[in-house]
Specification:
By secondary structure, this protein is an all-alpha fold. The chain has one domain (2-84). The protein is built from 4 helices and no strands.
Length: 85
């Protein structure tokens, strides 16, 4: 059961990251008439956050698949990610 929850959590992070990247254009346009530099900063921030979510979700899935959810390495990864969010 614990492995299933880990895989669901990892998949949720991947989906959350993809869902964060998808509306980037509309989010930037919602800010109205801002400079091109500010638009680029917004795009960079939104994409970076989405890629971070996806990367961390993949990390959780890979650690669980390689070591199992009860392994000390996997437990350390889960704890570090939990504290960082």
């Amino acid at each position: 059961m614990a492995d299933t929850l880990v895989y669901v959590a990892g998949a949720a992070l991947v989906l959350w990251g993809a869902a964060h990247i998808a509306p980037t254009r509309s989010v930037v346009h919602s800010f109205g008439g801002i400079s091109v530099d500010n638009q680029r900063i917004l795009v960079m921030e939104w994409v970076a956050e989405g890629v971070t979510h996806i990367s961390l979700g993949v990390l959780v899935i890979i650690v669980a698949a390689a070591e199992g959810s009860a392994d000390p390495t996997a437990q350390l990864v889960y704890r570090v990610l939990a504290v960082s969010w």
